[in-house]
Write a structure and sequence with these properties.
The protein is 17% helix and 33% strand. The chain has 184 residues and is of the alpha+beta class. The N and C termini lie far apart (93 Å).
Length: 184
């Protein structure tokens, strides 16, 4: 039974099957899948992912290695301005032949190695596992972003160093009104 190849992440490796040392290079651009990122930054769905991969037949299965390049978009965690980062992630994943995976499971190996299915490998999970850890945990628009004013919410980078608010301690507010009444 042939595996459907409608996903751009499902690669046909029939030409490499069962001949260790055989390899081929693959360079292609595919659309980014849904939710490729974190809450604060990620690769927008449908944006280009540039894959530069080497598919190699080894004794255990097919080894896929290479790089994934993309553009991640998010917002600064201090001031909420847009942040754009270049992503350059290294990818390496072994896809085991079904009989090798079954033998490993019978021997008690608990490794979760994806299995080659009908001469196809699905690299979407490997792409996610490579890209997401490279994204900034706390993206910033600039390394020295001062953030937002806690009083009015203005961006401090735009407001300038003289941005201040007159704050009166609420415990003294009534006393201030007494002095205001005496002056009038």
């Amino acid at each position: 039974m042939e595996r459907p190849t409608s996903s751009p992440f499902v690669l046909d490796v029939h030409d490499l099957d069962r001949r260790p040392g055989t390899m081929r290079h693959l360079r292609q651009t595919v659309p980014a899948p849904v939710d490729l990122g974190t809450v604060v930054i990620g690769v927008p769905t449908g944006d280009d992912l540039d894959l530069d991969l080497r598919l190699e037949s080894v004794m255990e299965g097919i080894l896929v290695s290479g790089t994934v390049r993309a553009r991640a978009v998010g917002e600064c965690v201090r001031c909420l301005e847009a942040v754009v980062e270049d992503v350059d992630a290294a990818l390496q994943q072994l896809y085991a032949y079904p009989e090798r995976a079954q033998a490993a499971a019978e021997d008690g190996d608990e490794e979760d190695v994806p299995v080659l299915e009908a001469d196809h490998v699905d690299i979407e999970t490997a792409v996610r596992d490579a890209v997401i850890p490279t994204l900034s945990f706390r993206p910033l628009c600039t390394p020295d972003c001062p953030g937002l004013c806690p009083e009015c919410g203005a961006r401090l980078a735009e407001a300038g160093p003289d941005h201040t608010h007159e704050t009166i301690d609420p415990r003294w507010a009534d006393l201030g009104r007494v002095f205001d009444e005496k002056e009038s």
